[in-house]
Design brief:
The protein has one domain. By secondary structure, it is mostly helical. Helix 1 runs antiparallel to helix 2 and helix 4 runs antiparallel to helix 6. The N and C termini lie close together (11 Å). Part of the tripartite ATP-independent periplasmic (TRAP) transport system. It is found in: Cell inner membrane.
Length: 164
């Protein structure tokens, strides 16, 4: 296996951009607060939304690079031929959980769209913020699938010399 980490470039760019915007609006808010004794009302709402984007985009990158927190003790104790079974079980549990988040997140976004709810700070429709949750979870599921295929293939090809 090569030493180059698998790439998740769109998610990396999305997370970096969201983090940059958080830094800029937070810095702008601090400067305005100290110079005028007032602050921008929208910064908290936008920062929380972007923090969720950073979190889920980062989770997709971690899934693609096989660096999610997991218990490797079981992996190390299993015979090499059984490790792909464990990888598939890990994948299935993750997909089940993320699938629930996709379903209920999409349901919540749809309800907010139907109710025409508006955000308190900016007055934007709340579904614009909420739709990102199921979309990013679907991306994570895709990256997890890429990861499990690669891990199983590499483990089987290398005769078990694969390090996770």
């Amino acid at each position: 296996m090569s030493n180059i980490a698998p790439d998740a470039r769109p998610e990396r760019w999305l997370a970096a951009f969201a983090l940059l915007v958080i830094c800029l609006i937070s810095l702008g808010n601090v400067v305005v607060r100290y110079t005028t004794d007032a602050s921008f009302a929208f910064t908290e709402e936008l920062s929380v939304f972007l923090l969720v984007v950073v979190t889920f985009a980062g989770a997709a990158v971690a899934a693609r690079r096989h660096v999610h927190i997991r218990i490797e003790l079981i992996e190390g104790l299993l015979p090499v031929r059984l490790r792909p079974v464990l990888y598939v079980l890990q994948w299935a549990a993750s997909v089940l959980l993320l699938g629930l988040v996709v379903w209920y997140g999409a349901l919540l976004a749809w309800e907010e769209y139907s109710w025409e709810s508006l955000s308190p700070g900016l007055g934007y429709p709340t579904w614009i913020y909420l739709i990102w949750l199921p979309v990013l979870c679907l991306i994570i599921i895709g990256r997890l699938t890429q990861s499990v295929v690669e891990r199983c293939r590499t483990c089987l090809q290398a005769g078990g010399e694969y390090e996770s």
